[in-house]
Amino acid sequence: MATEHTPGMQTLLLEREIEQFYYAEADMLDERRFNEWLALFTDDVRYWMPLVANVQYRHMDKEYSREGVDNAWIDEDKRTLTQRVQQLATGIHWAEEPRSRMSHLITNVRILDVGPSLDDPRELTTKCRFLIYRNRMETEVDVLVGKRSDVLRKEQGQWRVARREIFLDQNVLLSKNLTTFF
Amino acid sequence: MKFSADQLESLVNTAQGTVSREVFVNQDIFQQELEQVFARSWLMVGHESQIPKPNDYIVSRMGQDSVIVTRDPQGEIHVLLNSCRHRGMKVCRYDSGNSRSFTCPYHAWSYSIDGSLVEIPGELVGVPGFDQHYKGELDKKAWGLVPCPLVVNYKGTIWANWDSTAPSFEEYLGDMRLYLDAALDHRDGSPGGSEILGGVQKWRMPCNWKFPPENFIGDHYHDISHRSVNLVGIGPSEGKGRRDTTRPNIIMGFPNLGHGVIGHPPHYEEPDYTPQFTRYPELAEYFSDIHATRVKNLGDKMRVQTGAATIFPSMSFHGRQPRTLAVFHPVSPTEMEMWRYYLVDKDAPDSVKAAMRAYYLRYSGPGGMTESDDAENWGYATDASKGVIARRYDYNYQMGMGHAKPVPGLKDAVEGGDTTEENARIYYRRWKQMMQGKGWDELMAGARGQQRGNM
Q: With an 8 Å Cβ cutoff, is B199 touching chain A?
């Protein structure tokens, strides 16, 4: 029996659906099915990863670099995400040739907002954590951990990522490059 | 172990065109570099647009030392060692902020930069228990934050030098100054007027710190590194390649100063306008207008154009596409921390800044499609130089040896055409001279024309 503190079946099913969407996405990346992965994004996607600064507690609003104005680690649209996939396919992108081994772990998935309604979910705001393990050549290891906030939109009956904000928990990046997708 | 002048001569043999791998992996050489190169050279510590207001500060690095770059209430910029004089704790652990004093979190010694309160910026003003525990006997004036003696704001870039006997920044640059100007000046040809996009990309790379400045100093030869982005086409205009085309550049270096650049020698007329950033048609008018203003502003004055360049020892920049500044901080012989700043004209419309920003980020930084491949090469070059057998075999720097010739219009500069390793030889010769502990009279003798340096 549902009480007001227990999520309804519709919510549980939606949460399950979105978790599976993210796990399938992680498989595409880790199995290097990059063209399939690209198709998960809307044509107007914004894929943005700001810098994070050490600031005083009273300036926490300045912790992340500002979107569209400041520097960032990565700031992409569909065209440039596509170019990154094309670069991987050249076989002479030395940073990923030979390919790194990667595992994307996605956890703490939450749906923060459902629009226009739970009965007819067409746009979602979600939040999750990621842990990406990259192992390269013989002994190189990168561990990238952080938060991700997405806007998912339903297009032709399929969920698509319309916006992705990536908050990496590193001030000085401890990897020589960022050639993984988040 | 300290490497003697003779040992250094054999490690860097510019007559033979060889450099020993020890220079890239040896711990003792690294320590000597910190003392002889980093503690004596002009190092870029930031940009004035990071500290626009009184009491604004950023934390930066000089060699392995943490420094605070701060603007006092009177508007002067100071560089102070970020370490309490009592027990060494960092007195500032934020990347940036606004404060006229810094209080150590360990025992609360506090230091002020307010010129109306203290004679020397960074002076010790607060000591808990000064009367009770120190009996009023501590000489506060003698225990302020250590100030860097030489600081200069050059067209917005802030540079500092720990060696008070060093030549002025402008003399240190020589005619290389023209090329730095070409990066820092407004695109319309008026002096200065650039700012950086907020925030600095900082990242660690498992490579010796000298690989990137050598790469930026004029290594046209490494284009294979970037073939994948050329195929994909990441330039600001449609088509293959990674930047808008320009007249062919040549490699020019300053044998008595150590700097080098890929660019155009001095000329007196502006090349005709060619469309750029054509992926952004709405900006076409802006770029053609700015070219017309540039033609008018510069008239028949001398000008240069700069591509990638390095100011000895550890700062590189690109004056055109992407217009960036970079600093390579030494961490260990086999690790460095790279900082990247992105330049735009301060008064450019937001739409232009946005287009530049998008292009810059696509190209440079750890997520940049070009720079990510550089990291792979520099890292594994360092790694493969560690072995005892590998160390017996020097690197080859013989390309174009003996073929450099003077550059008309530049003082004390040589050029080696489109592709040469002349600039790397110049860079490592300068590095050797500084590592040998030569004084500034001797180091600057060549540039000052008193005598030609031993080349």
A: yes
With DSSP H G I counted as helix, E B as strand and the rest as coil, what are the percentages for chain A, rounded to 5?
A: 25, 45, 30
Continuous segment of H or E residues that includes residue B24: helix B22-25
Half-sphere exposure of B23 (CA within 13 A, CB side): 22
Output the pLDDT for position B364: 93
Residue with the larger pLDDT of the pair A19 and B228: A19
Cis peptide before B349 (omega within 30 of 0): no
Q: Which of A56, A95, A137 sits opposite B373 (nearest CB)?
A: A95
Query: What radius of gyration, in Å, describes the C-alpha atoms of chain A?
Result: 18
Residues of B in contact with A179 (CB under 8 A): 372
Angle, alpha carbons B329-B333-B339 (nearest 5°) = 20
CATH class of this structure's domain A7-168: alpha beta
Per-residue pLDDT tens over the stretch A29-61: 999 999 999 999 999 999 999 999 999 999 999
User: How far apart are the CA of A111 and the nearest CA of chain B, in angstroms?
Assistant: 29
Give the pLDDT of residue B290.
95
3 state DSSP class of B331: strand
Inter-chain touch A179–B372, beta carbons under 8 Å: yes
Q: What contacts B391, CB < 8 A, 6 or more positions away?
A: B20, B21, B22, B25, B385
**Chain B residue numbers touching A173 (CB-CB < 8 A):** 201-204, 366
pTM equals: 0.95
Domain layout of chain A by residue ranges: 7-168
Please classify residue B452 by burial: count the beta carbons closer than 10 Å to its beta carbon, then call 0-12 exposed, 13-18 middle and 19+ buried. exposed
Kindly list the residues from chain A whose CB atom is less than 8 angstroms away from the CB atom of residue B371: 177
Q: Per-residue pLDDT tens for A115-151?
A: 999 999 999 999 999 999 999 999 999 999 999 999 9
Q: Which residues of A are less than 8 Å from B343 in CB distance?
A: none
Is the preceding peptide bond at B236 cis, omega within 30 degrees of 0? no
Whether chain A has a CB inside 8 Å of the CB on B232: the answer is yes
Å between A107 CA and nearest CA of chain B: 24
HSE (side-chain half, CA atoms, 13 Å) at B352:
17
For residue B151, what are its two tokens? 């600081």
ipTM of the complex: 0.95
Taking CA atoms, B104 is separated from B89, B99, B100, B125, in Å, by 7, 13, 14, 12
Per-residue confidence band for A5, with pLDDT thresholds at 50, 70 and 90: low
